[in-house]
Amino acid sequence: MENILIIHGPNLNMLGKRNKNIYGSKDLEQINNLIIQKGKELNFNIDIYQSNNEGDIITKLQEAYERYNGVVINPGAYTHYSIAIRDAIEILKIPVIEVHLSNIYSREHFRNKSVIASVCTGQISGFGYNSYILALEALRDLLL
């Protein structure tokens, strides 16, 4: 069984309350339940972590170094400027997939750049909560 870490960044704990036209109507608990369900189908042991704090996300990524076989991360707004999170991902020797609920390239100009993408195995955006599901399927294929 593969150990997979899911990281939700800032403000994702407010899903269901945020702009539903952009982020959908599901709250984080509903999305987490769908992630866990998909993980069981794929024979993944899923750990889920959410933080609004950059340093806590970095610490969790550092802990992933020898503990997990893959990471799915939605860095939220940190996507666009956190070199520190980028550097923590770059250290990992496991697949890391960046996900976003919305298509960051069709939104405001300042959201069009990801400083994280270049050190991730791949990026999935624009599919709502299914971005996480697609990332888990990609990890399955990468870990075969």
TrEMBL record:
Catalytically driven reaction(s): 3-dehydroquinate = 3-dehydroshikimate + H2O
Active site, UniProt feature: Y23 (proton acceptor), H100 (proton donor)
GO molecular function (one): 3-dehydroquinate dehydratase activity
Gene3D superfamilies linked: Dehydroquinase, class II (3.40.50.9100)
Positions annotated to bind substrate: N74, H80, D87, L101, S102, R111
InterPro entries assigned to the protein according to its UniProt record, in alphabetical order: DHquinase_II, DHquinase_II_sf
This protein's record includes keyword Lyase: yes
Group of enzyme by EC: lyase
Enzyme Commission number(s) of this protein: 4.2.1.10
N-terminal signal peptide: none
Annotated site location: Transition state stabilizer: R18
Alphabetical keyword list: Amino-acid biosynthesis, Aromatic amino acid biosynthesis, Lyase
GO biological process, one term: aromatic amino acid family biosynthetic process
Pathway: Metabolic intermediate biosynthesis; chorismate biosynthesis; chorismate from D-erythrose 4-phosphate and phosphoenolpyruvate: step 3/7
UniProt entry tagged with the keyword Amino-acid biosynthesis: yes
Free-text function comment from the UniProt entry: Catalyzes a trans-dehydration via an enolate intermediate.
NCBIfam families from the UniProt entry: aroQ, PRK05395.1-2, PRK05395.1-3, PRK05395.1-4
Subunit organization: Homododecamer.
Sequence similarity: Belongs to the type-II 3-dehydroquinase family.
Designated name of the protein: 3-dehydroquinate dehydratase
Annotated organism of origin: Thermohalobacter berrensis
Gene name of the encoded protein: aroQ
